[in-house]
Specification:
mainly alpha
């Protein structure tokens, strides 16, 4: 069965062939890409089959609970060949792979955890992800001490307006 999406970035509901898929699959993919950037590994998940991919997810995130599976319990049962492991925090994984003294802010690892939630219905939405505290650590949008900082809060440009200006 050929499905859209690059295998290393597919959400659990895609790997499990759950017929109910939402925009949450895109949030998972964005989280996987961000995790690849943070860990300096591409792709993070390299399984050649959906079953191996699920085993890699379990190895990193731990065996999902029934609540985390959010209605995919019966689908997951067919893939029970994966072995349960204790989840590793994404921060610990970063340090293990990179050995760097520098570690990203805790807010980043919180955002990644919310993007890589087993349960699509509790996974962070794109809108909430954009307003996540991690992005607030990167900049202060209206800091008067910064050059060219606006004094009023303008509406952000839309894609349609940006394209029209070209």
């Amino acid at each position: 069965m050929n499905r859209a999406g690059t295998r290393g970035f597919r959400a659990p509901e895609v790997l499990l062939r759950n017929p109910i898929q939402t925009y949450a699959v895109d949030v998972w993919s964005a989280g996987s890409i961000l995790l690849s950037i943070v860990l300096r590994r591409y792709p993070i998940f390299r399984g050649a089959t959906d079953e191996i991919m699920l085993a890699e997810l379990v190895a990193l995130l731990g065996m999902p609970t029934l609540k985390q599976l959010g209605g995919m319990e019966l689908i997951f049962e067919g893939h029970r060949r994966v072995h349960p492991t204790e989840p590793m925090t994404l921060r610990d994984l970063y340090v293990k792979l990179n050995g760097d003294a520098y570690v990203w802010p805790e807010e980043l690892f919180d955002l990644l955890s919310q993007c890589l939630d087993w349960n699509a219905s509790t996974r962070i939405t794109a809108e909430k992800a954009l307003d996540h505290p991690f992005f607030h650590t990167l900049y202060t949008p209206h800091d008067p001490s910064l050059p060219n900082s606006p004094t009023a809060s303008p509406s952000p440009p839309t894609v349609a307006n940006a394209v029209a200006d070209c």
